[in-house]
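Recap quiz, item 2
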Amino acid sequence: MAVHVSDNKRKKENITLAQVAEAAGVSKMTASRVLRNSSGFSTKTHDRVMQAVDQLGYVPNRLAAAFGSDKSSTLIGVCVPRLTSGMFGSVLDSIDHTLSRLGFQTMIGSHEQQPETEQSWLTTILSWRPAGVILSGRTHTQTTLSMLRDYGIPVVEIWNLNTSPIDISVGFNHYDCGHEMGRYIVGRGYRKIAYVGAEASTPGMGMVRLSGFKQALAANNLDLAAQELLIDRPGFYAGFYGTETILNRTSNVDSIYYQEDTMAVGGLFYCQSKGLRVPEDIAIAGWGGMEVASVLPKRLTTTSVTTQALGKSAAEALVARIRGEPVQDVIVAPTRLVPGSTV
Amino acid sequence: MAVHVSDNKRKKENITLAQVAEAAGVSKMTASRVLRNSSGFSTKTHDRVMQAVDQLGYVPNRLAAAFGSDKSSTLIGVCVPRLTSGMFGSVLDSIDHTLSRLGFQTMIGSHEQQPETEQSWLTTILSWRPAGVILSGRTHTQTTLSMLRDYGIPVVEIWNLNTSPIDISVGFNHYDCGHEMGRYIVGRGYRKIAYVGAEASTPGMGMVRLSGFKQALAANNLDLAAQELLIDRPGFYAGFYGTETILNRTSNVDSIYYQEDTMAVGGLFYCQSKGLRVPEDIAIAGWGGMEVASVLPKRLTTTSVTTQALGKSAAEALVARIRGEPVQDVIVAPTRLVPGSTV
DNA sequence: AGCAGAAGAGTTACCGGTAACGCAATCAAA
DNA sequence: TTTGATTGCGTTACCGGTAACTCTTCTGCT
């Protein structure tokens, strides 16, 4: 197979602002002002500069701009737990679209629920002097916090609702989600209730939902009949095998609350493969309102969450903060329990 | 709710290379050489500089580095069709991990299968002067191609195998995937074969697989009995309703090939809901080897693809090209037909 | 000893924007 | 008409690294 080396490529000289300015017959500074749409130029000058830009095909060098003044960075760092999850994919998608509409670029990373990974991501990101960052970790290291404080840029914490955020928090109320589902399941008459979750490393928001869930049971003088926390990525597979484990270990479980819809679907399939009727023999509930839940033979009882809205709110709040506009520092993204036919 | 404004924050002065150099008693240039591990310094100097770095907590300014010399950019642009797809999520994850291990940062965008969106993403990315880009579009606009040529950076095209790439291609052989599945389905005795796909905008690789699939049918003197191409994002939902449409429109269809596993699963559920036995009444095959397929009551017949390997290969090839090392310019990522119990 | 070449380190200029400041012309109010 | 404020634009310096070059020392070798 052919082997190429690219060093023979000729790199076309880039057009600079100075060339644009010269073509327009103004100074670099005036051209800069026109392009940033800041004030201090006449309409005539504006038109002449824009014409020169079009004619020369000028592409601004954001590197130089961001470097020259720390105020003009248009870079936003975003760190999510996983890139492979449909939920976070949707949030990322929404953040990315919103930010690029507002003239910002996103630099993405994943932390796999490990505060140390988030910290090393942050170190790297800060070396790019971003205008702001969006974090999704449940907990942060001390170093992370002090870096953010020292660096002094806007920070949005997403996913979890945090009533005393570093700066701004946009998230779901996971505790309430769990509590509401707990009440619902108990209200439907189930009494021997189990939980199946999965955490690859340190606990994420599933644990917060679980505590709300347990609280709802406790309010009815119930406790979890069984609980299985796999050391794995949450997904269909983990749900399938987690259910197997629970049902083999504990008898007469009449309902299972899952950390996520994907896990609930995995569990549902396990039950079907064992000939268990849902919800007569066993009830199943998830969280997330993912697409897969809507095409199942039985509609999954779950909590539907607004990932798109979350991403959009987070991005908009961050930009507002960057621009010095007033922003609410705690924003709740809506969630809603959707009764299906599995509970 | 409280309203904050961040302009009262105090930004700690960043440590610069000059300060490190002074503390180490050397010149800026020598410190720079040590940090980049290029040659031209003694062990003693190296240690003194590193000690100063640790002591001062120096964080390099990549913005300045990339700006000062176009050779030292560590930025890679990556553009995928969607952030919400599990398949691309996995590829992104793999690319991101590999690149960050090699000292690069990724800037991600999505093009939604629209060459124009890819082009505008490229314009933005180029303004950051990246060291290389990874594209996944099936087709590119003329402007995209000429920008890449002018700019002269390494380019890796992923997802599709392209025998005459812009620079480097790392992908699956979608045609062969389709062809192999076509042969397999015909070989199992099916004759009235349909296809269900979904494209939100311009055709992606599903179309390439379909053409391989059709070719395999043609080799057996068969033609597609029916075909449904939804104008939608491929997913469970599209698979469900695409199947409904096909089966209502054409009678006696005995097998359906889906663009993706998620769609196949959607189709499978539709069939179950209508009391159709799989594969006795109707056979179902997908593509992708996604996790959901492995927990279904019946294991899905599909083509398993190595998204992780694809991402890793792409990232490694790009870095090798950036470093001027020899690279194969066409790299095939493995795919494998996995017989399940749905065909 | 004499000399070429390598190794280690410093000097200078520059990348392409933006902030801060300065200055002339224009305009509104006294 | 004078004066102070505003508008429009230019000048200068600077951001924090790196490339290219220069200048010393050391080597090792004839």
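Residues 73-172+307-335 of chain B form a domain with the Rossmann fold fold (CATH 3.40.50.2300).
The first strand of chain B starts at residue 3 and ends at 4.
End of item.
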